[in-house]
Amino acid sequence: TPSSSDVQLTEEAVRRYLIRKPMTTKDLLKKFQTKRTGLSSEQTVNVLAQILKRLNPERKNVNDKMHFYLTE
Amino acid sequence: SSSEADEMAAALEAELNDFM
């Protein structure tokens, strides 16, 4: 439908990004901008937090910033 | 805006605090 969002914040989408390369919370938020998903800021934060807790990604510091990543 | 992005990142990190 024309009104549907072009990006969906799903566990599978997050998993694909984190397998590709390590990302900070800010990097992830950029991939799921509210204007693209149609979610509110609060929904985005809550859903992304739940997904990250489920995925339980590896973490590493790059340039003093914590990055999440997954291996296949 | 970037300040909203910063606020969201801070909120997300707070949500993940125990986990991180």
Description:
The complex is a heterodimer of chains A (72) and B (20). Chain A is an alpha+beta fold and 72 residues long. Chain A contains 4 helices and 2 strands. In chain A, strands 1-2 form a two-stranded antiparallel ribbon. With 20 residues, chain B is mainly alpha-helical. Chain B contains 1 helix and no strands. The N and C termini of chain B lie far apart (26 Å). The interface between A and B is medium-sized, with 18 and 13 residues.
Radius of gyration of chain B: 9 Å
Note poorly predicted spans of chain A: none
The SS-based structural class of chain B is mainly alpha
Number of helices of chain A: 4
Percent helix of chain B: over 70%
Distance between the termini of chain A: 34 Å
Could you estimate the helical fraction of the residues of chain A in percent? 40-55%
What is the number of strand segments of chain B? 0
Proportion of beta-strand residues of chain B: under 5%
* Biggest sheet, spatial arrangement of strands of chain A: 1-2
Distance between the termini of chain B: 26 Å
Quick one: which chains have the greatest interface? A-B, 18 and 13 residues
**Any idea what the shape of chain B is?**
rod-shaped
Order of helices and strands of chain B: H
* Element string of chain A (H = helix, E = strand): HHHHEE
The main β sheet of chain B shows up as: none
Radius of gyration computed on alpha carbons of chain A: 13 Å
Strand content of chain A: 5-15%
- Structural class per helix/strand content of chain A? alpha+beta
What is the number of beta strands of chain A?
A: 2
Keywords, separated by commas or semicolons:
heterodimer, A: 72 residues, alpha+beta, two-stranded antiparallel ribbon, 4 helices, 2 strands, 14% strand, B: 20 residues, mainly alpha
Fold blueprint:
The complex is a heterodimer of chains A (72) and B (20).
Chain A: H1 11-20, H2 25-31, H3 34-37, H4 41-55, E1 58-62, E2 65-69
Antiparallel strand pairs in A: 1-2
Chain B: H1 2-15
